[in-house]
Amino acid sequence: MEPSLAENERKRLMLKKIQFLATGLLVLMASLFLLSKYLETSYPWLGFLRAFTEAGMVGALADWFAVVALFRHPLGLPIPHTNLIVQKQEALGKNLGNFVVQNFLDEASIRREVQKIHIAQEVAKWLKTPDNALLLVKELEKFIPNIINGIDAQEMNTFLKNKALHFVYNIDLASLVADILNYFTQKNEHQRLLDYVLKSLNEFLAKDENREWLRQKFNDKGLPSLLGIGTAINETFADGTLEAVQEYSYEVLTTPNHVLRQRYNQLTQRLFADLKNSPEYKQKADKIKDEIIQGTAFQRYTSNIWDELKTTILKDYLSENSKIREYLLKGLMAMAEKLESDTEMRASIDRTLHEEIIQFVQKNKTWISTHIGTTVKNWDKADIADKLELEVGKDLQYIRINGTIVGGLVGLILYLLFDVLFKLH
To answer: Where are the domains of the chain?
Structure first.
């Protein structure tokens, strides 16, 4: 990432300040040297100051030359082996790339640093904050229209139709119905269904208008009518029949172990066995299945599965109460909870991701080295010195300051040694 302009200006200001300090120290050494040299004959003790400032001035000049020579030609003079950064730009980039790869991207170093990162734990912690999970969902949602609209409708409809046909063709309809019937039987739902039918029949027969309608049917088509018996006898027969049916249905309804219920259980079990084992029932079920598949409704529906699904998804996507958004959010929150509570899962995910990162870096080390070298090589020659000087120039100015002080001290020590030796002789 490129440094901001404000950051560059801050670095440039700090560099100028320290450059001013180092240069000021050089000017101070030169001034004190001239002053002490001029007054030394009158004040011999100034010889110590002259020795210190003379050596300090030489050290300051030498270090100034060395620091400046790294980034440009001192005083603009094309002195050999100066302006080194620009002159050695390509080699510098190549060496920097090799240095980074060899010292920072070896497998042991990468493994050591990567294993300090608990990726799954950090992801779980981040996702547990609802605002973060919602932010991620909103980002994921942005891809939905492009993904959906990017799918070829004809190809997807054909694919889904073939899958639907394959699925239906492979259904053992007889066994499926048998399993459903067995499930309802085990849950005693078939008896509840019988109770509902008997209760409804009783309620129907209890209403006068329904009984009158049934009497009329008996008059028209009942057995006494067919035998030519009179209307009164016919109505008596009808009332008796209705009463018998109502009483018997009520008896079955209120008797849990009634014989009719037992026979109903037996018939249900027999039907279950036939559906499971009878070739005849299997053939009938397969025929029904074929009729469904060949039917207009099934063909129409399976020919446009994707169109309907696409419309539903995009409509939901635009809705403020999107179910897709809700499911994604719930899924992410559930994943966060699972990651946070399952230590083994976190460790497994971390191991996998750590290995992937390590292998990725190892496979791309050559590219990384080349990329660093190429990037440095392609830097503008007018900018490269400024870029590097902004980053390390401040520290290099301290070398000038240290060189001035250390040079002065060395000069003073040598002066004292020679002075002592001269007096000994």
So the answer is: 5-87+379-424, 174-303
Longest CA pairwise span in the chain (Å): 170
Residue 152, SS3 per DSSP: coil
d(CA 397, CA 227): 131
Q: Which residues of the chain have pLDDT under 50?
A: 1, 225-227, 230
Q: Which residues are within 8 A (CB) of 368 and not within 5 positions of it... i.e. 6 or more apart?
A: 97, 100, 101, 105, 361
Question: In angstroms, rounded to a whole number, what is the distance separating the alpha carbons of residues 220 and 267?
Answer: 34
Beta carbons within 8 Å of 223's beta carbon, 6+ residues apart: 237
- At 87 the pLDDT is 73
The answer to whether 128 and 336 are in contact (CB under 8 A) is: yes
For residue 387, what are the contacts with CB-CB under 8 A and spacing of at least 6? 379
Q: Look up the pTM and report it.
A: 0.51
Distance from C-alpha of 138 to C-alpha of 129, rounded to nearest angstrom: 14
Separation between Cα atoms, residue 180 and residue 189, nearest integer Å: 11
Q: What is the per-residue pLDDT for 230?
A: 45
Helix (H, G, I), strand (E, B) or coil at 311: helix
Amino acid at 180: I
